[in-house]
Amino acid sequence: MRNKIIFIMVALGVMGALGSAYVYAVPNKPLPPVFNPAPDPYAQGIYANGIVESYQSNGENTNIYPEVSGSILRVFVTEGQSVAQGTPLIQIDDSIQKATAEQLRSQAEAAQAMLEELRAQPRKENLEVARAQVTMAQATLKTADDTLDKQERSFKIDPESVSKDALDNAINGQKVAKANLDVVTRQYELTKAGAWVFDVRNQEKQTEALTKAYNASAALLAKYLIKAPTDGIIMSVTATTGSYVSPQGSYDTYTQGFDPIVVMGTAKGTLGLRCYIDEILIPRLPPAEKLQAQMFIRGTDTKIPLEFVRVQPYVSPKIQLSNQRQERVDLRVLPVIFRFQPPPGVQVFSGELVDVYIGEKKT
């Protein structure tokens, strides 16, 4: 009886194993793809990776870096906002530079005031004082002359009437009065002539130097308010209020690198496309006048015709699409620039990766 039960259990196990093998051996029906892979629309098309960017007549997106270092006080714009040239974007703390500029401005104004003072000489009040001193010296000399004349006439009448000492004092008093008149007269002429030309020239140079120092400080102060260099759209803002930025940009916690604090693109409408042709496919690239291309948006069946703009004639390592700054890359690519108008209802953003096929126009 026991052997019979064991036999039945073995038979059931074998039947279960055979059933399981049959069930798992039946192939599953593959699911339909979410979207069709980008097909080559040309007989001998060249495939390339592409990245969407704002269309520029030269270069790529407008990357804005500060020219000064400091903490962010205020961010005036947000991503997606359209701005005009000169619109304030970010305010960096400028308290120290503002004080420096104010100090230099005061020094320049003081130097200018001193220059105007020199040019305004002689001052009317100073000239009147000098003229009064001349008048007084003339009167003093007249008194000395009269005193000496009296002493000499008395001495001639009666030599015993005037002592030798008194006569000598009268003579010396006249000489002193003449010398004093000569001094105050020269002082009057000096005051009347105004400031010395070399003093004026020296003050002019000091005023010019301080004015230039202030202008340079004011120009540097203006750098703390970052403005839009051109009309466009704010694509990315990496700086936040309170964060520290430098001419290297702002530190990105995720990439552990430095990024531009603001990335701007051109106004809505035409977009640019930069695709990278593998160096082994460059000989198959059609001539510019015969070149045509289409781009395919990944995840959709949407394809958009491209308008050829130019070839960037510099083959470089393919690091643009990897975001790896330090990696060693052997593959080199040739950038080719296109532009296009997004069709209605199709959303395309700068930085988006797309598939591109490049072919030759039929003649």
Task: Give an overview in words.
By secondary structure, this protein is α+β, with helices and mostly antiparallel strands. Among the domains are: 46-55 and 270-360, Efflux pump adaptor protein, beta barrel domain (Elongation Factor Tu (Ef-tu), domain 3); 63-92 and 224-265, OB fold (Dihydrolipoamide Acetyltransferase, E2P) (Beta Barrel), CATH 2.40.50; 122-194, Helix Hairpins, CATH 1.10.287. The chain is built from five helices and 17 strands. A six-stranded antiparallel beta barrel has the order 1-12-16-14-13-17. Helix 2 (95-119) packs antiparallel against helix 5 (197-222) and helix 3 (124-157) runs antiparallel to helix 4. It is rod-shaped, with a radius of gyration of 47 Å. The two termini are 90 Å apart.
Fold blueprint:
Elements: H1 2-25, E1 46-54, E2 62-64, E3 70-75, E4 82-83, E5 88-92, H2 95-119, H3 124-157, H4 164-193, H5 197-222, E6 225-227, E7 232-237, E8 244-246, E9 249-252, E10 257-259, E11 262-265, E12 271-278, E13 291-297, E14 303-311, E15 316-317, E16 332-340, E17 353-360
Antiparallel strand pairs: 1-12, 1-17, 2-11, 3-5, 3-8, 4-7, 5-6, 7-11, 8-9, 9-10, 12-16, 13-14, 13-17, 14-16, 15-16
Helix pairs in contact: 2-5, 3-4
